[in-house]
Amino acid sequence: MVLSLKSVKKLSTAAIGAAVAAAFIGLEAKSANAALFIDQEQPSINAKMAYFSQSDLAQSFKPTANNVAGAGIKLTKGVGTVGDIKISLWNAQGKVLASGIALGQVPNAWTEVFWNPVVVTPNKTLYLIFQSPSDLAIAGDTNNPYPNGQVYANRGFQSFPRYDYTFRTYSDDSFGIQSVPEPTSVLGLMTFIGFIGVSATKCKKQQSALYKS
Prior knowledge:
single chain, alpha+beta, 4-stranded antiparallel beta sheet, disordered C terminus
């Protein structure tokens, strides 16, 4: 079978199109993998730390990432029924940076809320405040398992330096990063397109020689 010049052009165009599509699909997939990750976490439990009815419940922590995109707490097993829970992010100056509400939470569940990433300073103390009109309770540990923060509870946010709620915070690893093709990907793509162009030129020359004979 002899390829005509027209078919060679079609093949080249199709190949280039496929290469471009494949390259950018790959880049999109890589970009899509950028997601939330747990930045700070205290997972251990050895106590029913506090009921929401006690009021003024908070946990201090120090982020290592440059943003906070959500937070969660572990509810105590066998305590309460069901309720809505609000988690707010505060700075040391008493300013609310973000908040979210988790609806219909039940005992022994992780309650998590998320918001648009908030810019923060790594290793600078922040506070999570927990509120709910429910009869649920928050789990925790009384052996100071999280050294970069502590429990606050009861009216006036009384300090309990050796206690920690069972909690976690989330950050967004794509925050502040534009989704652009990586240099290696672009180089590979352009190299392949160049190869297709050279191949098309060779086919054209070979076909011209064939017609001359």
